[in-house]
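#onboarding

Welcome to the new folks! Below is a worked example of what a typical request in this channel looks like: someone posts a single protein sequence, and someone else replies with the predicted structure as tokens. Don't worry about understanding the tokens yet, we'll cover that in week two.

Example request:
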Amino acid sequence: MVSKKRGRKSVPSPDRQISLPGKAVPKGTQRLQRLLAAAGFGSRRQCEELILAGRVEVDGRVVTELGAKADATRSEIRVDGLLIQFPELVYYAVYKPPGAVSTTRDPSGRTRVIDLVPETEARVFAVGRLDLHSEGLMLLTNDGELAYRLTHPRFGVPKRYRVVVAGVPTQEVIRKLLKGVHLAEGIARAKSVRILKKYRQSAVLDLTLCEGHNREIRRMLARFGHKVYKLKRLGIGPLSLGKLRPGEYRVLTPAEVTALKEAAGLSVEKVS
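Example response:
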């Protein structure tokens, strides 16, 4: 069982404690879900659910259309009656331990990944998910636009994993993983698969995906009779787990944030 006390902060050099300055205020007229995401209400998909549920008002009028737009500098936008604010952007790399949940709410009272970082006024949320038994790198932020691009398959940002499986996959199985496996949501395919170690009844794989279906790796490998014993995410685009230990977090450097945005196709100013 995972303890619910706040995560330990890793101890990098002082220059790695810097966060990227600036507010997440979009310029000009934007889709409403994008504005809510920028204000830290979650991913675009989560913000679309807020709109559809009738919880969003623009200048005193309830808006339920996903195509609605607004200008944050001219309109009064409220969620559940509260005026939205655009906080400072924050970015955390977190080592999610097994047993912690990636969701923002958990009726069972289990430790959430967001419980592992400091409490701030900013509404941080996890970018993508790792299932209950998986571990490794997660990004927590209130930057909704970056979160959207890192998780949407259209932008093709790779996620790298270390996977321990039952049995040793054959070259034919690896070929099929690269070609694509039919799941209920569609075809899931690995970008790369390497066998790092072989044992008599198991193997260690290095596997990279550019998608994010629920329990995708476990389901793909199960199709070929390879049960996943352990799954650990090592990287998201250019961001790596590094020396973080289970339950630890660290603030991303400006250079890391810039690299992530570039990988996601966002236009950013270079950080020296």
